[in-house]
Write a structure and sequence with these properties.
CATH topology of the largest domain: MetI-like fold
Largest sheet: none
Radius of gyration: 24 Å
CATH class of the largest domain: Mainly Alpha
Number of helices: 14
Shape: globular
Number of domains: 2
């Protein structure tokens, strides 16, 4: 197992190297180059030449790339153009909010998706199965922003069940330790803050987790149906094993292989694709930073966000590979 993990870790290095090279090239392919993109409408040949000299963009490409890698390895992404503060500090402030939202959405999607998909497969062709399939189609088809506004209107405003925006009420006397509202409230035993933070988290987590939920249900259903038709399942049943034993050891464990891949991919999408959800619920995370960076052409911020999202995808895929090896030991020797 350890050898398998080491091989996968070594495979991450060239992937990240290629990603850094692509990002380096993207910055040089911007209209007018990085200097022209930074200066915007104020760009003149003289100002572009001056910025190029300050940023070292007049040096040979290999030298520029070496310095670019050095800044990445040291976490130096420069200052944000819109707020004139280090980009790393912006990411540190926004990352806990997005992680908290993504984890809650993933718990919602996985916690409902796998059981619903399994039950739909077990009741193939029945009312529950058909209703589940229709529900997943609706979940994928409804736009995120529309679902968000509908939940805010009918659940939060009309019924008054949950909060509509932000992470906690502005008047809450909270203690900030890690930036994660739920974790901080648990650590400091501020139960009123915990309840308030959960009330703010429920609706955006449901909205963000709806599409992953629909995808996980469909993949789980299809995977379970495939496994149920395998010979080893019929053999186990013919031997007289208990139904719950067959389902747990033979059906679910083998059906989880493609499901784990889907969960891994959806995790990356949750971290990278929370822009609309964060906008609707005024959730100040990476999605809000990304939207503001695109609007204001804040390229230092966008560069850091792109690298962060790419790194998350690589790490998530690594964890998926490890989960494969845990679920199916045969993967370790391939």
């Amino acid at each position: 197992m350890l050898r398998f993990i080491v091989r996968r870790l070594l495979g991450v290095i060239p992937t990240l190297f290629v990603l850094s090279f692509l990002l380096f090239g993207w910055l040089r392919l911007l209209p007018g180059g990085p200097a022209g993109a930074l200066l915007g409408d104020k760009a003149t040949p003289e100002s572009i030449a001056s910025v190029n000299k300050v940023l070292g963009l007049d040096q040979p490409i290999p030298v520029q790339y070496a310095k670019f890698l050095g800044r990445i390895l040291t976490g130096d992404f420069g200052n944000s153009l819109s707020k004139s503060r280090p980009v790393v500090e912006e990411l540190a402030d926004a990352l806990p909010a997005t992680i908290e939202l993504a984890v809650a959405a993933l718990i919602f999607a996985v916690g409902l998706g796998i059981p619903l998909g399994y039950l739909a497969a077990r009741r193939r062709g029945g009312i529950f199965d058909n209703s589940t399939i229709m529900g997943t189609l609706v979940g994928v088809a409804v736009p995120v922003f529309l679902l968000g506004y509908l939940l805010k209107k009918y659940i939060a405003t009309d019924l008054g069940l949950f909060e509509t925006s932000g992470r906690v009420d502005t008047g809450m006397n909270e203690t900030n330790v890690t930036g994660f509202k739920i974790l901080d409230a648990l650590m400091t035993r501020e139960w009123d803050v915990l309840v308030n933070a959960l009330s703010h988290l429920v609706l955006p987590a449901i909205v963000l987790g709806t599409i992953p939920l629909a995808v996980i249900v469909r993949i789980t259903r299809a995977s379970v149906l495939d496994v149920l038709n395998e010979d080893y399942v019929r053999t186990a049943e013919a031997k007289g094993l208990l139904g719950k034993t067959v389902r747990r050891r033979h059906v679910l464990r083998n059906a989880l292989l493609p499901v784990s891949t889907t969960i891994g991919l959806q995790t990356g999408l949750l971290l990278a694709g929370a822009v609309l959800t964060e906008k609707v619920f005024v959730w100040n995370g990476l999605g809000s930073l990304l939207a503001e960076g695109i609007e204001k052409r804040d390229y230092p911020r966008l560069q850091a966000l792109i690298l962060l999202v790419a790194f998350v995808y690589v790490i998530v895929n690594l964890l998926v590979d490890i989960s494969y090896a845990i679920i199916d030991p045969r993967v370790r020797v391939r």
